[in-house]
Each structure stands twice: as structure tokens, then as C-alpha cells.
Design goal:
- The structure is a homodimer.
- By secondary structure, chain A is α/β, with parallel strands linked by helices.
- Chain A has two domains: 106 residues, Urease, subunit C, domain 1 (Roll), CATH 2.30.40; 285 residues, Metal-dependent hydrolases (TIM Barrel, Alpha-Beta Barrel).
- Chain A is 38% helix and 24% strand.
- The first copy, chain A, has 18 helices and 16 strands.
- Chain A has an eight-stranded mixed β-sheet with strand order 3-2-1-4-13-14-15-16, covered by helices on one side. Chain A has a four-stranded parallel β-sheet with strand order 5-6-7-8.
- In chain A, helix 14 crosses helix 16.
- The radius of gyration of chain A is 21 Å and the shape is globular.
- The interface between A and B is large, with 57 and 57 residues.
Chain lengths: 441, 441
């Protein structure tokens, strides 16, 4: 008998690689935080002696979701700042309004609230874009989640930094401190790059190449952004950025709701990573991402939630449903593609596909279990179809990151949910939300 | 002190009428199954002596959802028959494939499974279209749900009836038997009306007028249906039906994904009831329902699920989000409109708005409570916004129909969920699903 730290037996395992595979009565064997083997349960019981054994008799076990675009701290703002006139314009004003709340404390409380939501809905890795990434990095480490932190860049001063030079300095210093942490990675996260000077964009590109980190930016996110780029640069955003050397496989382009056919071909040629945020795109009336076209062109498309829901099951369902109507084909984006987008494609977008995103032996044991023994998923003809079209977040029972169990039968093991909710509620108190602004005035 | 059967105190009550009202710390007083009063909790405690008191300290109390288009028995087929080539064509072939399963037993097991899902997600009334409506009527009565049963009509023989004449005879006889039941109502439910002879359509219209019942039909549901109508009648479906006197306020037109602007104006003039099924429309790539345009034209638009999910919270969110993107306005279909569509507009579509759909005194006490004390809905700035954009079905804690509690703290009081799930699972057994066909061969 070979010793193992953890053996998880599940009714169904969907490893994402190979695509579409559904393995019944299989087990994942974990040692030193990594997947040692994926094999039939009966064989696992014969071959491995498990320090900890877990039985999931009614569950689908999948790679944990990779949420490829988040603003974790904005979890605190849901329902508080919904003036659509802001959201239809460029990102800058929407960000500026947040100076009212922005502080290290806000970033901590919001990141932790988002982590509660992410773990409870099966997410094991997120790609964040917000002020105070140092605070979010610490929160992710305390919690045990895998995170790609945005080294945020803007010319606008905030409570986090006074101008682009300081943003860059603080971001790169943060990365230097944490670059050997196995759960953390980093990306430059410029806000509204099309409003930045060409020299700044070149500086960011050069730094990203030197440090070999991705650049994470919202692009082609609104018609207004495209219009502004045409006015300022006489080019659409992608053409403008292409001329500055930005279109590489290290670019994580979020939203991409309004690309032309030739832009789609260009994204595919350059290997640009695209992140589709279905619910956020609909809610802010950004336009329709041509998902099926992007996938057909060979573009790697991941899924993200943006700033509020953090529910990748909901995004996966919405993305798959929406894609069918947009392209007029009910067979477009089948369940296996949707799950791949929510897991492996996200890992690939972040440059982490050797580490996570599927259940290949050697990868970290980043896992989520979904209980299918609920009336909404019975009778169960096809676990993959029911997972994508029928399951909801409350069915997520267990989550592991690098073999460490962070959600156990619906209970968080590293986060104090009651304390986090109590701190979140305090941001609603009248006067409280104005405190940082008052303090800095 | 005035005696009352039931007083429910909730942190928030959203009565739907007046639209947008959110009442904090209010109570609903119920006597003889009907709403006697809606008033501040403190006053209710002074004025009413309740036989049963219920405290919902973290909950939103709303009118129960009205699901304005269901095929309840098809709950058993989810994931079993997903060939998209069927769903892109006319309804008829998709229905025909069901002859494999169709039987009274199938209708009973499927209806009961759907009722489990509906109650657990806050639905108190549904508008059904399926074979064996007698079986579904009995199941609804046993369960205590409010139901509008479809007197299904098609020329194609099935296990339920041999031809249109028998469908009509069995349907009207069923209605005669049950027409005084307070929880039941009836509508004619012709399948694919544009494929029927004009004389049959006129017969249905005449019968509907005589009996004063609605006609419930899928219309403008696919591009193929419109194409067929143009070929067969040299008219689009609505023009064809208008010439036969079908466009009245007694017509419940389901899907309506591809109306022209002049058709929208015609629907508004005639007072036709429209049912939008957002997730089903997307999934089957039927096209985009111009929801905001229909509402702006003054059309009464309700929401329905079709045959699988039965989750009106999900439809409400999907419908509201989708409408914004379709019309390019993030302010379109705000949360209050979405909730109204899922409740009062549904009741109105079924001719039941004097009975249910809002919390006006005198209506039946058809209620659903949603627990907002979950991390996904905190902090809670706006209960209406969080209900529509943030809540999921598992937060539905309590449901009453006509003052009778059918879901209590998440547990069903009239349905045996375990037995229903066990019966549902039996339809998966190999050979079992072919039994009715084999029996009739």
C-alpha cells in the first residue's frame, strides 16, 4: 500500500482533461498538496493507504473554478452604487466614486467577504483588480485561496498610491516580497489603459516582459471606450494597443464585448487571453461577447464575475445559455466547453495551467465537490449537463486548495463567516462609509 | 384584539402593489386563507390575536411566484433528451419523441417532482401545458399549489387522447369536474397552433369565449415557426391568428421572441398576455425577446420556465439582465419590474390578478419568504435589488398558498420529497422509459 495524505472518492469525477470525460466511482489521491493519481475507487482502495479519506457518494468532483476577473473588495458595494449612468461610461468615474470607501480596512473586509462567497460556490483561484492588493494578498494567504493579485496602475491618486509611478513601485515591491509563495501570483492591472499615455503603456509592457507576468485589463468593455479611443487615437482600442506591442499571450483582455471579425482573428493570432463576464456584461448593457466565434477562432476564453456575485456556477450557466442565443445555435458551447472555460481556460489565462485548472496528476489538488442529490438535479441522466444547467451554489459542499480543505460539508474551515459578515454590515452604517474620505480631507 | 388565523412578521415585505414599495418590519394578517391586512408589525401585535404567529427576522416576504408557462411532467426529462436539432424545429417533433415516456404515471411522477422544485423556489401558482392534465390537477390538489391546467389540444394521437376532438372533450370535461375548486383554473393549450386547420383554431377560440377561459400557446417561438406560417398561410403567425380572432386579452402568447415593431403595437392594442421564458429562450437559441420594448408598449409580460428548471428567481434575474443588454440600457427593467413580471403580471396573464400576484388585502395569502441572511446577500443596501440579482432558490425558506403553509423552514409539508425523488429516479432505469411504448406496440 502506498501512503497518501488524502483520498477522495466521488460518485463522478469530471477531470476537464480530457474534455468531456465523466468518470464514475473514481478517486483522487493527494500527496504533498498535489494530485498523485486519479483512478477507479476500487483500485484506489487497494493501492493507497490514506491518512484522510473522504466519501462523496452523491457528488460531482471537479477542478475548483478559476475566476479570471474579480474586484473582490467591491463585494461590499453590491446594491449600494448602482447608478447605471456611471456604469455606461468609462471605468474611471465608477472607480473614482469608490474613493468614498477606499481604505485598507475596506479592502480587507471586502476581500474576505468575497472569499466567503467564492469558497461557498466552488472557486479555488481568482484574478483580482483592486486597490490595496497587499491587503488582499494577506487575506488570500490567511484563507488559503489561490490568487493572482493585480498590481493596479492608474494616473489617478487614491488612498493606495499617489500616481502611476507609485502604483508601479508599490505593486512590484509587493510581488518581490511574495514571488515565492506557492498560492500567489501577480499581474499588472492598469485601469482604463486607453486613457493612458503611450509612454506609460510601453513602460507597463516592458515591465511585464521583464518580470514575465501577465497584464490584466478591461478592454473593448463598452461602446464608449471604443468611441473615446477613436477620438483620442484615431484607432479602436485593440489597434492602438497592438501598435504598442500589447497584444501577446501575456495579455488578459477582460469583457471583449464588441470585437470585429478581424479583431477576433488578431486575438487568436496573438494568443491573447480573453475573459468573458456574462452576467456583468448583461447587467451593464455592455453588449454581447461573441463567445462561440471567439472559441471557434481558437481564442482561449475564460470566465469572470467582475465585482459582485462571485458565483462561477451562475456565470458558467449564463455564459453557455447566452452564447447559444447570440450565435443562433442551441448546440453552441456545450456543457464540457462551459466547464473548461470556468476552470482550465482560466488557469491558462493566468499562466497557471501547469498548476491548476484540471485534475491531471502533478497539478495542485484544487478541487470542488457539488452535491447532486437535490430535487433540482434529479433524475440525473448527465452529470455534466446538470452541473452546468441545473446546479446552484448551495450545492457546493467541499473545496480544497493545494490539498487543504477550506470548505467541509458546507462549513468554512479557515474563514470566520460570522465575523466577516458582521464587519461587512458595519460598512452600511450611516456616516461610516464616508469615514475614509473624511479622514483624508 | 381581532382574531386571525395567521400573522407573519417579516423584516421586509415587498407587496408588489404599489410597485417598488419595500416595507420594513411589517406583518401580513391572514384569515380564511386570505390577506386581511398588511401593516407595521408593532401595530399588528397590538391589533390581532394570531392563532399561529411566524417570525421572519432576516427575510423578504413577497407574493409567491406565478410561473406562467410550464410543462411540469418534463421535469423528468432534464438532461435526457437534449438533441438541439429537435429544439430548433417546430414543437411537434419534440413532443412526439415524448410518446416514448408519456403515460399517466409519467405525468404524476413528473408533476410531483416539478412541484417539489417549484415550492422550494417560491412558486405558488403555475400554468401548465402537458398531457394528462387530470393527473396534474390531482397532484396540485394533493400538494396544495394553485394551478392553471392546460386543456391540451393537438391533432396527433397520444396516450392521453386519440385526436383533437377527444382532446377537447376530455379537457372540457375535466374543467367541468373541477371548475369550482378554488385552487384550480383552466386554459386551452393548443400545441403548435400554426400547424392546425383554421376551422380547428376557430373552434378553440369559440369554446374559449363560451367558457371564458384563456388560450395558452407557444407563439413566435422560433424562426422556423414563422417561416412555416409564411409558407402555409402567406402570413406571419400573429397575422394569421389575428384574422381568426385569436388576438385578445384571453390569449397567453408564450415566447414571443421575434415580434416586429408593428406586431408589438398590435399585441398592446389587443391586450394579449405575453410570457417570456428567458433561460429556455437562450438555451434553445430561439432569439431575443424584446422585453423592454414590450413593456414600454404597455404589454403585460409575465415570466415562465418551460419544461425544466422551475426556478423563478433564476428566470427573474436572467430576464432582467438580458433585457438590459438587448435594449442597450443598464437601467431597463429595474428590479421592481422584474419582480412584478414574476408575480402580478403572471397572475394577470392567467386572469387571476384578483386572486393572487400581490399582497393586497382580499387576495389569497399566496406568499414566499426569502432568507437574506447569507453571505451572498450581505451587506444588504436594497432588499429588492438583492432579491432579484443576488438571491438563489435555496434561500426560499417558507411558502404559503391560500394561507396554508406548504414549505416550512425549507421542509415540504404536503409532499414526500424522498418518495418523489425515488419515483423520479426509476424513470432512468434502462428499459423502464420504453415501457409505455412497448405496452402500446
Amino acid at each position: 500500500m502506498t501512503p497518501a495524505d488524502l483520498v477522495i472518492h466521488a460518485r463522478w469525477v469530471i477531470p476537464v482533461e480530457p474534455e468531456g470525460a465523466i468518470l464514475e466511482q473514481h478517486a483522487i489521491v493527494v500527496r504533498d498538496g498535489r494530485i498523485l493519481a486519479l483512478l477507479p475507487s476500487a483500485e484506489a482502495r487497494r493501492q493507497y493507504h490514506a491518512h484522510t479519506g473522504v466519501e462523496l457518494p452523491d457528488h460531482v468532483l471537479i477542478p475548483g473554478f478559476v475566476n479570471a476577473h474579480t474586484h473582490t473588495a467591491m463585494s461590499l458595494l453590491r446594491g449600494a452604487a448602482e447608478d447605471p449612468s456611471l456604469t455606461l461610461s468609462l471605468p474611471e468615474p465608477a472607480w473614482t466614486t469608490q474613493s468614498r470607501w477606499m481604505s485598507a480596512e475596506f479592502a480587507r473586509d471586502g476581500s474576505e467577504l468575497a472569499m466567503v462567497r467564492m469558497l461557498r460556490s466552488g472557486t479555488t483561484c481568482f484574478n483580482d483588480m483592486y486597490f490595496f492588493p497587499d491587503v488582499t494578498a494577506e487575506a488570500a494567504q490567511r484563507c488559503g485561496l489561490r490568487a493572482c493579485l493585480g498590481m493596479i496602475v492608474t494616473e489617478a491618486p487614491s488612498a493606495w498610491a499617489g500616481g502611476a509611478r507609485e502604483y508601479l513601485a508599490k505593486g512590484t515591491a509587493l510581488r518581490d516580497r511574495h514571488k515565492d509563495e506557492p498560492l500567489l501570483s501577480f499581474a499588472f492591472a492598469p485601469i482604463a489603459p486607453c486613457t493612458m499615455a503611450a509612454s506609460r503603456l510601453q513602460e507597463i509592457r516592458t515591465l511585464a516582459d521583464e518580470l514575465d507576468v501577465p497584464v490584466h485589463a478591461e478592454l473593448n468593455a463598452t461602446a464608449a471606450e471604443i468611441q473615446l479611443s477613436l477620438q483620442q487615437h484615431a484607432q479602436r482600442p485593440l489597434a492602438h494597443l497592438a501598435a504598442l506591442g500589447w497584444l501577446t499571450s501575456n495579455l488578459i483582455a477582460v469583457y471583449m464585448t464588441l470585437p470585429t471579425d478581424s479583431e477576433i482573428a488578431g486575438l487568436a493570432r496573438a494568443g491573447v487571453q480573453v475573459v468573458h463576464c456574462p452576467e456583468s456584461s448583461l447587467r451593464l448593457a455592455r453588449g454581447f461577447c461573441p463567445l462561440a466565434k471567439l472559441l471557434a477562432a481558437g481564442v482561449n476564453v475564460a470566465l469572470g464575475t467582475g465585482g459582485s456575485a462571485f458565483d462561477m456556477l451562475a456565470e458558467m450557466r449564463c455564459g453557455a445559455l447566452l452564447a447559444k442565443a447570440v450565435v443562433g445555435d442551441a448546440a453552441a458551447v456545450p456543457p464540457a466547453s462551459a466547464l473548461r472555460m470556468a476552470t482550465l481556460n482560466g488557469a491558462r489565462a493566468l499562466g497557471l495551467d501547469q498548476a491548476t485548472g484540471s485534475l491531471l496528476p502533478g497539478k495542485w489538488a484544487d478541487l470542488a465537490a457539488v452535491d447532486m442529490n437535490v430535487p433540482e438535479c434529479q433524475p440525473l441522466y448527465d452529470p455534466l449537463s446538470q452541473l452546468v444547467y441545473g446546479a446552484s451554489r448551495r450545492q457546493v459542499s467541499d473545496v480544497w486548495v493545494a490539498g487543504r480543505q477550506l470548505l467541509r460539508a458546507g462549513a468554512l474551515t479557515t474563514l470566520d463567516q460570522d465575523a466577516i459578515l458582521a464587519r461587512a454590515a458595519r460598512w452600511q452604517e450611516p456616516g461610516r462609509s464616508a469615514t475614509p474620505e473624511a479622514a483624508s480631507a
